[in-house]
Write the structure tokens for this entry.
Amino acid sequence: MDIQTIPARRGKAAFADAGQKIKVINTHGEQVVDTWAFARENLDEFMSMEHTRATLVKLMPALGDHLYSNRRRPILTLVEDTSPGVHDTLMAACDDYRYKLLGCTDYHDNCTDNLAAAMDALGLEAPETPSPLNLFMNIPWGADGVLAFEPPLTRPGDYVVLEANMDLVIAFSACPQDILPVNGKAGRPTEAHFQILD
């Protein structure tokens, strides 16, 4: 598949077969990419951060680690990562409610709606919005349990490669967060790119 654009502040989804690899590119270096995977044969099975953390017994996946579904089956494997390896498994996808809590009085683009739109473009409907794998998102934590929202540590062109462990639907959102510095201190969400590799 040719390189596909995840438009700034929007979502995109695609089909991937078992064994195919998905390359996700942080084109400009400071863009968080919310990532979901759903089993193609049954969308009620999907990549689950809760189940992944319990299985890996750590907060952040590393090279060679599987990402697990809510049925505790490997759904993706992290096989390459040119970034510093800082990704988030804790934060829920942003939604309009989140932006209201951050002071927005009008509608704000958000990852929850981006997932729905991306799936709809394939004629599908996600059964829910699972907590995503937030690629390139920098959420450091301290010994006191306090979390922080910090800019990504990635450089332009950094990428990860995920291998599909089953036939799946992969979905992305170029996170539209422009209030907290998770997409860089300038708060300017940008496009990212992905490619399905044979």
Summary: The mean pLDDT is 97.
